[in-house]
Structures are given as C-alpha cells and as structure tokens.
Amino acid sequence: MLTRLETIIVEKPWGRSDIPRDFGDFGDRRIGEIWFAHPAGDAAPIMVKFLFTSERLSIQVHPDDDAARAADFPRGKEECWLILDAQPGAELGVGLNAMTTRDKLRDAALDGSIVDMIDWRRSKTGDFVYNRAGTIHAIGPGLTVVEVQQNVDCTYRLYDYGRPRELHLDEGLDVAITGPVHDPRDTFVDASTNRLLISGPHFHLVHLASPIDPALLQRATGELTFVPLSRGCRVAGEIVALGEAVLLTDPSSIEMDQGARALLTWPA
Q1: Is 101 exposed, middle or buried, given 0-12, 13-18 or 19+ CB atoms closer than 10 A?
Q2: DSSP states along the chain
Q3: Catalytic residue among 16, 56, 157, 261, which?
Q4: 157 is catalytic
Q5: Domain 195-267: assigned CATH number
Q6: What pLDDT tens digit does each residue of the chain (268 aa) get?
Q7: How crowded is residue 246: how many other Cβ atoms within 10 Å of its Cβ?
Q8: What is the location of CATH 2.60.120.10 in the chain?
Q9: Which strands form 203-209's sheet, in the order they lie side by side?
Q10: Quick count: other Cβ atoms within 10 Å of Cβ 108?
Q11: Cα 215 to chain centroid, rounded
Q12: Do residues 9 and 251 make contact, with C-beta atoms less than 8 angstroms apart?
C-alpha cells in the first residue's frame, strides 16, 4: 500500500531550464524546486525537495524548535542536503569562515559583505551536508540537490543579493551561530552503497542502493517517505519515478533494480 504525494513544481528566477528529462518535460521553464505535499499539510513533520540552481540563493538561517515555537511556528527547521550533481566550481555556503559578533554580522548583511564571511565549500556529486538550526547557509549555482528537512515554512533571510524580498535581520541574528560550523554527519555518499545518514533527533534518513541492505529496512518504522534518485524503483509493485515521492508503512514492499538508488526517511 502506498500513497503518492502531490508533486509541486516551483519556478524560480535562480532555477534552471536544463533539468534532466527523467524529472519531466518542463519546456523552457526555469524550475527551481520540486517538492512534495503531504496530505497532513503543516502537521507533517518532514518535507523533501529537489533543488536546481543557476544562481546563488539567499543567505539565511533557521531557528531551532524552541525559538520557532516562541515565534508561533509548530517546529524549528533542521535540514540536510545530498548533492546529486555539481557543475564545475559549484559551492555550498555553510557557517562562517571566522568568529564574529552579531553587530558586525548585521552591518555585513546590510552592505553585502556578509558574502565574504560565508564558508563557501566546493561541492561535488555525492557530498552530504547536515545543516543544523542556527547555521548561516546558502546554496550556490550549478547544483542539483535533494533536501530533507523539518516541515515548516520558517526561513530568516539575512541577505538576498538585491532581490526584492523581505529580510529578517532581527529574527535571524537572534538565532544565528556567529562562527564556523562543521557537523560530524557531513560525509560523502557513494551512489552504490546502503547507508544510514541521519538518526535523529528530528528525522531518520537512509540511502538505499540495490541490493538493499535488509538491516536498514528493519530500522524503518511508522510512516515512511520513499524518494527515488534514479529509475528502477518500485513500491508494492508500482513504479515510482525520479521526481516522485510516496508514503508507505511496509519497507519490505520496496524493490529496486540493479544500479537504482533512493532515499527513505521517517520521523524520529
């Protein structure tokens, strides 16, 4: 038994018109995101997105659970990124390159010099980054990313390259880590390996490759979200294509052809 999640296609100025055809035919539209709407809406604890970038996204930060609830959000926002494709020179911004103060950060956000304070890391296909709450971060151009996150619409933008969108300096600086961030869960993921990537505190995440390691499936309980990263994936005998996501409760119903890969995630 599976439930197919509604697929939402989002055009963005920083999106791309050269998305691989396996995701669908979008013509010349600049697709920035493909995300999946859970039937429970805002009550769902997890959201999964694909991101396709041709420009730098805003420099931003997310609150933790306590700070988010104090601001009337249902939960905070921690997230992780798996790089599915990285063009030459592609970068992720994760944390700052040196310790600083909130006053200096505010000035830098206002004059744009915050860009030079970000720890810009060269990205390659297979990189995995855990972005815990409070980490000042940004996604650069030339990337195809699958993102798994706590499901909440709460992003504090600190700088947006002059785009006409609201900034949230007070809220963002209140929760920001004002220095470098290196999370022990950051790693490289071989496309042919089965691997536990995240084990709480907010969600679990495993990378599946054929043949699937049954020990990983035994860890999966409750409502599971299955996200193919290639062709050759099925649940309960039904094909689940790249660019789709489904809910299921029986992990033994997952089947994958040789060479196929996917993510499986569930709440902690």
Answers
A1: exposed
A2: -EEEPEEEEEEEEEEES---GGG---TT--EEEEEEE-TTGGG-SEEEEEEE-SSPPPEEE---HHHHHHTT-SS---EEEEEEEE-TT-EEEEEESS---HHHHHHHHHHSGGGGGEEEEE--TTEEEEE-TT--EEE-SSEEEEEEEES----EEEE-TT-S----HHHHHHH---S----TT-EE--TT--EEEEE-SSEEEEEEESSP-HHHHHH--SSEEEEESSS-EEETTEE--TT--EEES-GGGEEE-TT-EEEEEEE-
A3: 157
A4: yes
A5: 2.60.120
A6: 899 999 999 999 999 999 988 898 999 999 999 999 999 999 999 999 999 999 999 999 999 999 999 999 999 999 999 999 999 999 999 999 999 999 999 999 999 999 999 999 999 999 999 999 999 999 999 999 999 999 999 999 999 999 989 999 999 999 999 999 999 999 999 999 999 999 999 999 999 999 999 999 999 999 999 999 999 999 999 999 999 999 999 999 999 999 999 999 999 9
A7: 21
A8: 2-188
A9: 2-4, 246-248, 224-228, 261-267, 203-209, 195-199
A10: 20
A11: 25
A12: no
Q: pTM for this one?
A: 0.96
- Do the Cβ atoms of 136 and 106 come closer than 8 Å? no
Q: What's CA 82's distance to the chain center, in Å?
A: 7
**In terms of CATH architecture, what is 2-188?**
Sandwich (2.60)
* Residue 70 CB neighbours (<10 A): 10
